[in-house]
Amino acid sequence: MSLRLSTVILPHRRWNEGGARSWTRAEQLGFHAGYTYDHLSWRTFRDGPWFGAVPTLTAAASITDRLRLGTLVTSPNFRHPVTLAKELISLDDISGGRVTLGIGAGGTGFDATALGQEPWTPRERADRFAEFVPLLERLLTEDSVSYEGDFYAAHEARTIPGCVQRPRLPFAIAATGPRGLKLAARHGQAWVTTGDPRLYETGTPEQSVQALRDQIEKLTDACVALGRDVQELDKILLTGFTPDRSRPLDSLDAFVDFAGRHQELGFTELVLHWPIPDSDFAADEKVFEQIAMEAPGQLR
Fold it and tell me: How far is 149 from 198, CA to CA, in rounded Å?
């Protein structure tokens, strides 16, 4: 299978001050998908402009025709399945069925406390995620849903007419632990990872490749336990968080080498951060565009 290249465009620029251009340019460059982060604020961007994911993707849908659109990733930190389902169905309709939902258990960043709550423990995040995903699936595939769980409830929630994509828009589930991988195996059309965060500061690229190999083996085991072929799942690497950091974007050759090593592991899609000057995602935009246009032909 050929390796797809996608990009993630952070929602940090006003739409009429460069925000829109990135999305149209992403389609022109031939990227498979354009994703954005679904956070209320994020890391070093916290005290600057930051816009909502769903309105941004809705605007992107209106100025593109072929580019798939999605979140990397949405989480229960500030989302509820009922309201999220309504927004996703609307976005899928507006885009003509081009939406992928990247979804994860959430973390301990700013989103975790923005609504005034105490940060959830890792176990509670996993518990909530295990309830969130199946309920969201029901809401996206059934006209009316009633549910009473430990964390979420729905009372005759209507989600008519459902998604343009049938039976629903695809889930790309971010997970590395056993419970999350089981959710990916059961409900996902794709699996997402950023690698092993413990290796980011002091690890080596070789250690990262081995860690990713181990993650894919665990995903395979989760699929086997459910009687599912792991080849049915796309495997997505959100780049920039492995020990390689931004070095694969230094040149076309550097990227092809990086991408080839990860394609051999079984990844079907690599997601590159759209360059942002003076940030962790700084890169030469001309090289970035060269990679987008020329690398796929070398990776078939």
Answer: 34
pTM for the full predicted model: 0.97
Cα–Cα distance list, 60 to 13, 28, 44, 132 (Å): 13, 13, 24, 27
Give the 3-state secondary structure of residue 15.
Answer: helix
The beta strand positions in the chain, using DSSP E, are: 4-8, 33-36, 68-74, 99-103, 144-148, 153-158, 171-174, 190-193, 234-238, 269-273
What's the rounded Cα separation, in Å, for the pair 70 and 244?
Answer: 25
Give how far the C-alpha of residue 247 lies from the chain's centroid of Cα atoms, to the nearest Å: 21
Give the pLDDT confidence score for residue 1 in this predicted structure.
64
For residue 18, give every residue at least 6 positions away whose Cβ sits within 8 Å of its Cβ, in sequence order, or none. none
pLDDT value at residue 142: 98
Closest of 140, 139, 40, 143 to residue 99, by C-alpha: 140
Take residue 224 and report the two structure tokens written for it.
């086997």
